[in-house]
């Protein structure tokens, strides 16, 4: 995978099993977020192939696969001017999920009272919680979490374990990028260490 002609991911051969959650660790700039973007079909590798749900990813299959993938990345995927509830209703409409579940998932992440607040007026942690509500609403088969604990308070941290457990229970798979070895070993079945875009270590729990 090249970005601006500099290779970012190289010789990467990684397979996620159904029901498995892997932890992705590595130094800043080692390629973790880039790998998540490739898996989320947001960027296409310049060489090699990506297979999701048994199908090789191209422009057509990416559109279908994307409906089964959720990425919680560094910046919240929320429209600032829409309220949290409007944001989730929009997600429900775009992904064909039932809108009636929106109040329920907002309550699940502790945002019932903030549902009517514009996203721009929410704290970083509240926005993160709203993104976890999006994950609960869309029930992805592949869940990609990029340093998701950042900004979450003590009460909200278990929500990450919960969404990963839900993915596992549906026989989906998850990838958790984190710099915290303790969290990775608690939440993941395998830890994959990246170094300069290559898999350096794989450690099973
Ligand atoms: N849009 C881009 N254009 C050019 N280079 C990029 C782009 N995005 C990332 N890179 C480069 O790709 C490499 C990997 O970046 P990436 O964000 O995947 O690392 P990371 O492991 O997630 O780092 P961190 O722990 O700091 O979040 C870095 O050298 C970075 O400078």
UniProtKB/TrEMBL annotation:
Alphabetically ordered keywords of this record: Antibiotic resistance, ATP-binding, Nucleotide-binding, Transport
Pfam families: ABC_tran
GO biological process, one term: response to antibiotic
Membrane topology summary: Peripheral membrane protein
Family annotation (SMART domains): AAA
Subcellular location: Cell membrane
Broad class of the protein's primary localization: membrane
Highest taxon above the source species: Bacteria
Gene Ontology molecular function: ATP binding; ATP hydrolysis activity
PROSITE patterns, alphabetized: ABC_TRANSPORTER_1, ABC_TRANSPORTER_2
Domain ABC transporter, first and last residues per copy: 1-205
CC terms in the record's Gene Ontology section: plasma membrane
InterPro entries, alphabetized: AAA+_ATPase, ABC_transporter-like_ATP-bd, ABC_transporter-like_CS, ABC_transporter_ATP-binding, P-loop_NTPase
Family as reported in the entry's similarity comment: Belongs to the ABC transporter superfamily.
Protein name in the entry: Heme exporter protein A
Organism: Pseudonocardia alni (Amycolata alni)
Taxonomic lineage from the root: Bacteria, Bacillati, Actinomycetota, Actinomycetes, Pseudonocardiales
């Amino acid at each position: 995978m090249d970005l601006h002609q500099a290779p970012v991911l190289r010789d990467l051969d990684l397979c996620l099993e159904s029901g498995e959650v892997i932890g992705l660790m590595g130094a800043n700039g080692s390629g973790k977020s880039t790998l998540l973007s490739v898996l989320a079909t947001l960027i296409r590798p310049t060489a090699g192939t990506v297979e999701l749900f048994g199908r090789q990813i191209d422009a057509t299959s990416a559109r279908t696969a994307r409906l089964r993938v959720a990425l919680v990345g560094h910046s919240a995927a929320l429209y600032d001017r829409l309220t949290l509830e409007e944001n989730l209703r929009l997600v429900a409409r775009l992904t064909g999920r039932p809108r009636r579940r929106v109040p329920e998932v907002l309550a699940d992440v502790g945002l019932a009272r903030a549902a009517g607040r514009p996203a721009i007026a929410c704290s970083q942690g509240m926005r993160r919680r709203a993104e976890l509500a999006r994950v609960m609403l869309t029930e992805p088969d592949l869940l990609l979490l990029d340093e998701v604990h950042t900004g979450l308070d003590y009460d909200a941290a278990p929500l990450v374990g919960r969404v990963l457990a839900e993915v596992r229970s549906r026989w989906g798979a998850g990838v958790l990028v984190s710099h915290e070895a303790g969290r990775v070993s608690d939440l993941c079945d395998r830890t994959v260490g990246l170094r300069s875009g290559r898999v350096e270590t794989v450690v099973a729990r």
